[in-house]
Amino acid sequence: MSRGDGIKDILRLALIMQDSYQGLSIQDIQDEFGVSRSTAVRMKRIIEEVFAVEEVENYNTPVKKWRLSKKPLTKMIKFTAEEIAELENCKSMMKNLNYTNRCDLISEIMAKINSINDSKAIKTDVEALLEAEGYAIRQFPRYKLNLTTFNMISEAIKAYKYIAFTYKNKKNETANLKIQPYGIIYSEKTYLLGYNEAKKGFRSYNVNEIKDLQIVDEYFERDENFNLKSYLAKSFGVFQEKPIKVKLLFSKEVQEAINNYNLHPTQKLKINSDGTTTATFEAGGKYEICWHLFRWGKNVEIIEPQELKDTYKELLEESMQQFSK
After folding, report:
1. Residue 299 maps to a domain
2. Residue 27 and residue 44: Cα distance in Å, rounded?
3. What is the pTM (predicted TM-score) of this model?
4. Total count of domains within the chain
C-alpha cells in the first residue's frame, strides 16, 4: 500500500465514523479495510489526533466503539489572531463605507468563529492588532437601511419573484411599482436594480425610498445573459447614461498617484515621455465623472469629448457664482 492509499483510507475512515450512529470497533475497522488489528488501532489513533472522537455507549456488548463527535472539525479549524482581526477590520470598513446592512452578518460570523476559537491568548492578540489599525474619516450620507426591506429584497432576488412597493423619486413624485429584482448596488446610497416592464428597461431605486414592500407570489424569468458587473461597468457611478469615450491628461506631479488609482474598470493608462499620464475609458454619467475630477484640481485636463468639457466648465461656473454674491 502506498502512502497515498494510506491517507485515502484515513479520510474514508473519518467519513465512515462521522456517518455512523452506532460507531466502529477495532474489529469493524479491520473488516472494512482488510488490515491487521495493530494497523486498525493505529488508524483509530490517527483519527483521534486530528478529529474529536467520542466513545459510543453500548449496553448490549462490552466491545468498545467510537464515532466522530458532532463537531468533528474543531480540531482542524483554527483561526489566527491576524485572520480574526482582518474580519473585524472588514466590519469596521463596511461601517465606514455606510454598508451597515451587512455588518450584522459579520457579527454573526465572528460569534461562530469565537465559539471554535476559545482562546484568551488569541483574543488578547486580536485586541492589540485592532488598536494598532484604523480607518480615516470618510464623508458620506448616513442613511439607515430598513433591514426588513433589505432582507425581503434579497429573498425575492433568490426566488426570482416580483416585488411591489411605493416609491418616491427625486422629483418627489410617488408611484406604485411592480418590478423584477436583479441586484443590490452599493454606492453612497444603496440601490435596488430591477427590470421595470412598464418602462421596458432596468432602473435603479434608492432602497431608502422604498415603502410598503411586498413579495408578489409570481415568478419572473430572469435574463440569463444579464451580468451585474458588466452592467455597472457601463457607467461611472450608479445611474446609466449613454457611454462616452473619455480621454484625460494628468500632470506629472500626480503620476504615481494616478497610476495607482482605479478610475474605471475599462481604464487604460499611458505614461508619456514628459511624465504626464493619459487615461482613457468609456462610461456614462458625465456629471459623476466631473464631480470626481474636481478632486484632481489643476492636475487633470479633459482632452475629450467636448460635451464633458462643457459640463465641467458649467459646473465650475455655477460654483464660482457663489463667490460673486
Report:
1. yes
2. 11
3. 0.58
4. 4
